[in-house]
Amino acid sequence: MSTEHELASHVKKVFIEQFGQNPILIKAPGRINIIGEHTDYNNGFVLPAATNQAIYIAIAKAENSHSTLISLDLNQTHIFDINELVISKNKLWANYILGVLAEVKNAGHKLHNIHMVFSGDVPRGSGMSSSAALECGTCFGINEIFDLKINKLDMVKMSQMAEHNFVGVMCGIMDQFASTMGKQSHAMLLDCKTLDYNYFPISMEDYMIVLCNSNVSHSLADSEYNTRRLQCEDGVKKLKRFYPEIKSLRDVSLDQLKDKKSALSEVVFKRCKYIIEENVRVLAMTRAMEKADFEMIGNLLKSAHYGMQYEYEITCPEIDFMAAFANDRTDVLGARMMGGGFGGCTINFVKRGAEDQFIKEMNEAYKAQFSKETTPIKVIISDGVRRINV
Would the pLDDT of 214 be above 70? Predict the structure, then answer.
């Protein structure tokens, strides 16, 4: 029996036992990002894809006067009234769901109480955006059970704003976009300024994507993520004095940045330099993948990690160790940290057939260095959020 069938069957079974109703089932995938970290909230380019790891949600209208959310993985329940949506102080996971409900209501849609049970195999804190999967799955499920006819792009925006307003993370739009709009066997180049996007096949017959989870948990709600965003905004504000036409770092060239380096603090200069160069790397990666230029793919991944480690400063010793270990190997094209930072995963392009040996040796080295194990994830690129049946 597949993991999908097991998890979906389990959430459905618990839902029926708890509420005596038949729910609809939603699969909301996590995501990888091949390249382009922290560029999204700077109106830049990103290159994500949806994964087979997902959050599975059973959801239906409630037949009583309150709503119930059940997180099977945390073994916690949150009860509330749909007419009184308030931020939960002690069950932070519930805010991802409550925030979506608030955004849907703010858009003028009438909602009634709901019951919802969920579980998943997207590792929390891994940089695979389990939070965005939960938001997007909730929004998709609400749209289905109340027949609200919300289009997918609006679902993406509502899910993003839920994280801003109820969770307190000023995230970009990439994670929600990938979870909602993903396409099997394809990555998407997303322009976060215009929201234009296009798919192209990931034709990696000779290589496969392996994530190595450091098992160093991180919380994007912590101050560092928002601090990076404020530093970028500070850079734009100061550069705008010289270049009034710019609206974000997307509009700034590296030459312009270097020319006005003296107007910025050393830290803000480094943050801006990383973002500008990362946008260039994203576009270069699409060309390299289309041409199957594997040497360039590897070099871009290595360059991106260097930028995150020394310019944006969002890595940690465990992540840097894993990236260096992988980048020293002949059976790995390249590796870098993936996600918001301060923990999570590395993404590794590994020669097909060598992945098990790579995983074994990585884990041995990591355990010897840090007395903990990595959790490997072999990535299958999947479709975005959708209804399923079991």
Answer: yes
User: What 3-state class would DSSP assign to 4?
Assistant: helix
Q: Which residues pair with 188 in a beta bridge?
A: 199
User: Of 147, 175, 196, 356, which one is the catalytic site residue?
Assistant: 175
The region that residue 38 occupies, defined by phi over 0 for left and psi between -120 and 50 for alpha, beta otherwise, is left
Cα(44)–Cα(193) distance, integer angstroms? 6
Q: Is the pLDDT of residue 18 over 60?
A: yes
Across the beta sheet with 375-378, what order do the strands follow? 332-338, 345-351, 207-213, 375-378
**DSSP one-letter string for 131-196:** HHHHHHHHHHHHHHHHT----HHHHHHHHHHHIIIII-----SHHHHHHHH-BTTEEEEEETTT--
Q: C-alpha distances in angstroms, 154 versus 145, 149, 326? A: 17, 10, 39
Active site residue 222: no
pLDDT at 221: 43
**pTM of the full predicted structure?**
0.89
Nearest to 237 by CA among 216, 260, 214: 260
Residue pair 100/135 in contact (Cβ under 8 Å)? The answer is yes
Residue 227's nearest CA partner among 363, 41, 13 is: 41
pLDDT value for 88: 94
